[in-house]
Amino acid sequence: MTTSFNRKEVARAFAHPAAAPVLATTLERSVESAHRARAEIEWESLRSAAHDVKAYAIENLDRLLTRFEAQFTQRGGIVLWAPTADDAVAHFLDICRRHGATSVVKGKSMVSEELGINEHLSRAGIDAVETDLGEYIVQLADQRPSHIVGPALHLSRHDVGKLFAAKLGIEYTDDPEALMSAARTRLRARYMQAQVGMTGVNFAVAETGTTVVIENEGNGGLSSAVPPVHVFLMGVEKVIPRLADVPLFVRILARAATGQKISTYTHHFLGAEEGKTVYCIIVDANRTKLLADPKTRQSLYCIRCGACLNVCPIYRRAGGFAYGGTYAGPIGAVITPQLTGIEQAGELPFVSTLCGACQDECPVKIDLPHQLVYLRHRAVEHGYGRASMTSRGIAAWARAMRDLPSYRRSVRWLRRSAALGRRIGWYPGVLGAWTKARTLPEPPKESFKEWWERAR
Amino acid sequence: MNDARSRVLAAVREALIDLSGRTSAPPPVTTFGETDESKASLAQKFATELQAVAGSAMIVRDRAECAASMASYLLGRGVRSVAVQSSPLAQGIALQLDGFDVSSAVKLDRHELERRDCALLEARSLLADTGSATVILNNTQDRLLPYLPRTCAIVAELGSLHATLTPQALACISDSAASGARGEALIVTGPSRTADIEKVLVLGAHGPQALAVFIVEQP
Amino acid sequence: MAATFPAPVRYEAGEHVALFLPCYCDVLFPDVGKAMVELFSRLEVPLEYPMEQTCCGQPAFNAGHWDEAGLLATGFSRVFAEYRWIVVPSGSCAAMVRAFYPYMDPASPAAAVGARVYDLAAFIVNVLGRTDIGARFEGRVTYHDGCHGRRELGSSEAAITLLKTVRGLDYVELPNIDECCGFGGMFAVKYPELSVSMGQAKCAAIAQSAAQIVTSGDSSCLMHVEGLIRSSQPATKLRFIHLAQILAAT
């Protein structure tokens, strides 16, 4: 599914600056808006509290999962367990078969994206339509979502207008309201036709088996209420201990994600009412790998608000596709290597200056920059990039730094290389990458050590 | 299926093995408190917040005034047909709504509900700091009400106003969850919206385009 | 075995302080080291320079080569074992030893030594308890806040406080001060397009501030931004000066 950090995509984002600056400005506004919303409340103490609740939930995950299952089942729901992505897909296909479903409506679910469920459904002859406007747009465009919260933010209104004209047969318009209206009309029919509706889950309360879904458009409400069968799809990490913990997260999620005080719809699904069948598919799909390592465990606290994406200087410039998978931005760089494998995604943690802006934004205080640097270590341990120039360079350099005599020899070598480079006007390898757009400082004749020995 | 369950739980337990033997107490619950503002003052705040998210709020004296105010609002929206939630206050107001085609939601199938112009719901509590309304929907038709019709009207008692997401405000949700009631408890804040195209705000996404809350002082 | 010290308390007059000078400063910016010597002399704090020091290991650590980084950390802890106070004119090197030595191995001697290292501004303000250090430096100066110093150590306030007490110095805040300059060590040469783009945003902020001088607690950041500006505007009158050099000036 993914390849290592897609440098072609990065190059492309720069070749077409029209896209990147639009995204960057949009995200800057999101961040400003989020900061304003946060300033209205006791942000620091709330995010600490949220961090602690998530820590407890993750550290007691097995107990809370079984409690959730018991409570959800007691209220008429059916819990299905999926150790792997394939298991989750199989469950969902099985549900569709059992209920004779030929048409499915989907609310926003990053997990379903991760599983590639739409492709499987399509191959099984089941028509699945995304109902979240952003997801609907990228589905029509046959693209992946580029941002956790705004899947189609990489497209201009002009792009969407052209897309709708081509795919929906409407007259071209770039007015967002008219475009929404066109989507609404078509999706109404789909809700009515569908036998199965699927949504993600923001929080699964262990204490009462309540599933909380938070959205603005109403498509989550419709996807869950109209069809006779409703399937929740969630990762194991969505469980929180108590119903009384929900307000805390409601308080911080929208503010972090979009700068709103609260989202339009905060659904608490209580249980299957008469005439309704409700399933919950609980998915592992390598989340237990993140869980198993104490240093990566915190990444499971993520509430998918997208704030780290909005503030990340790399994400703003490279866009979502460069990350090559479902999850982009700092959180994407942290979880993707474990979820899909180091061979495929091992480069992601390296594409960062470790500036830490993401951690400052995170409403649950995940130590993202620490995880990024730790995952670099895991990648190296795994043998990733072992033969690369960088790797060998670092090893050689570390040897050079091991003691003073070796250090002095390296300094002499560096001076000779720098002098040579200056004479011929060309620098090899990494120095070349530097000098393309930046001047190099001229190494002074005397180092500090040499001065100290001479003058002190 | 059992095997899948065992595998997931075993993987989780195995992953947490470094913590085994450690007992941790859950962190204290973070609760948000009421303020000492009067209901009247909270109502003003509620109205301001709801307006900020493109909803509207009307404070009315009694049921009769509520019905009159609502009728006027509905006429302004071109509403002719109304579907009503199966709850006492909503039904009570509905009885006084003259000149509209009013039906209980439970008597309608979903296609008929889809064609209704307006949903009439009852809020069990209101949250002043965000302009939010808490609605409990226990049957399928009621569950469709907040989303299908183009206009959404919500009635609530002044006494149900709270400062924010306090335990008292959310008691209707926690009681429902504890009692094993089915369906959905919804906190709704303004009409449906999206900003998925260039972050431009559009009202009336898949849900209603307009939402009004009628706060009744003497229900 | 490394000496152990009681929990940190206030610096006592006359205690010796070790200078930890980043390896790239030794070779490329020795004036920063000289400024440290001058500054501490004026502050009447005995400063020593353990010659055996080489590098704290940050490049290896950031590259994921923790074995090599660990070896350098051990070497570091041996060189500075006898010192109660260690000061370094770099937020990122300070963060490396204070935050990341314990992150790699909390029980190591390196972690213990790391806890005794302070970046320059934090040392003067929090340890020596001084804000006015009698410096004089004319010019309109803006401060670039290196990310590690800002986020791992929280030392921006100390640096800016010190700058504001410098006589003759007109301090202007850098717009978007919390945005990374794009250096990031190896990142600067592995992903040069991203690095340069981020640096250009920093250059634009500097231009917006109308500063004549750019200072920072990190020579690495300055080297990157200065390199960009001199490449694109060779005639620039902007000067890039490390914080230590400003504070040492009279």
Provide an overview of this structure.
- The complex is a heterotrimer of chains A (456), B (219) and C (250).
- Chain A is of the alpha/beta class and 456 residues long.
- Chain A contains 23 helices and ten strands.
- Chain A is 54% helix and 11% strand.
- Chain A has a six-stranded parallel β-sheet with strand order 1-10-7-4-2-3, sandwiched between helices.
- In chain A, helix 3 packs across helix 12 and helix 16 (329-340) runs parallel beside helix 19.
- Chain A starts with 6 loop residues before the first helix and ends with a helix.
- Chain B has one domain (38-218): 3-Layer(aba) Sandwich (Rossmann fold), CATH 3.40.50.
- Chain B is built from seven helices and twelve strands.
- Chain B has helices at residues 2-15, 39-52, 63-76, 88-95, 110-115, 140-144, 171-179, and strands at 56-62, 81-84, 101-104, 118-122, 125-127, 132-137, 151-157, 161-162, 183-188, 193-194, 202-203, 210-218.
- The model of chain B has no long low-confidence stretch (mean pLDDT 96).
- Chain C is an alpha/beta fold.
- In chain C, the strands form two sheets. A four-stranded parallel β-sheet of chain C has the order 2-1-3-4. In chain C, strands 6-5-7-8 form a four-stranded parallel β-sheet, with helices on both faces.
- Chain C is globular, with a radius of gyration of 18 Å.
- At the A-B interface, helix 2, helix 3, helix 4, strand 1 and helix 8 of A face helix 1, helix 5, helix 6, helix 7 and strand 9 of B.
